[in-house]
Amino acid sequence: MGSGTLACGVKESVKLYGNNIRSSHVEKSRDDAIISALVYATSQGMSQTDSEKYAQKEGAKAAKLATRKANRVIGPIISFGWDFFEAVYHGGTFTEGFLRGTGTLFGTYSGGFMGEQRLGRFGYLVGSQLGSWIGGRIGLMLYDVVNGVHYVLQFVQLHI
Fold it and tell me: What is the predicted pLDDT for the residue at 89?
C-alpha cells in the first residue's frame, strides 16, 4: 500500500473515467442518429419496419464514427494521466507530474491533429506519439524553469 499502489489506482480510475466518457459519447451519437433517421424515414413514407431497419443502420454508422473520434480525444487524456502518475511515482513532485502531463496532453493532441490533417490516420498515430514526447519534454523544461525561479527567489530572500 505504497505510492505505487496509489498511482496504479489513480491511473486505472483515469482509464475508467475516460472509457465512461467515450461510451456515453458513442451512445448519445447513436441515439441522435437513430432519432433523425426515423424522422427522415417517416417523412419519406417508409413502412415502420423499414424505418426501424434504416434507423438501426444509421445508428450503427454514427456509433462507429463516434468511436473513432472519441478514441482521438481519450488518447491524449490517458497520456496525460500516465505521464502525471509516472512522474509522481518515480519520485517527482506533484508540480513536475502536472507540468509534464499537461505538456504531454497538449503535445499529443496538437501533434495528432496536425498529423491527421496531413497524412490521415497514420499521420495521427505518428503525430500524437511525436507530439506526446515533445510535449512531455517541454513540460519538464517548464518545471525546471519554475523550480529554478523558486530557488533564486529563496536565495535572494535569504541574502536580503
Answer: 74
d(CA 122, CA 108): 14
Q: What's residue 107's pLDDT? A: 87
Query: Could you give the angle at the alpha carbon of 115 between the alpha carbons of 136 and 30, nearest 5°?
Result: 100
Cell of 55: 434507423
How many helices (H) and strands (E) the chain has is answered by 3, 0
pTM surpassing 0.70? no
Burial class (CB in 10 A: 0-12, 13-18, 19+), 100: buried
- DSSP state for residue 47 in the 8-state scheme: -
C-alpha angle with apex 94: 90 to 98, nearest 5 degrees? 100
Q: pLDDT below 70 — which residues of the chain?
A: 1-4, 7-8, 10-12, 14-20, 22, 71
> Is the Cβ–Cβ distance between 76 and 103 less than 8 Å?
no
Residue 118 CB contacts under 8 Å (≥ 6 apart), including other chains: 127
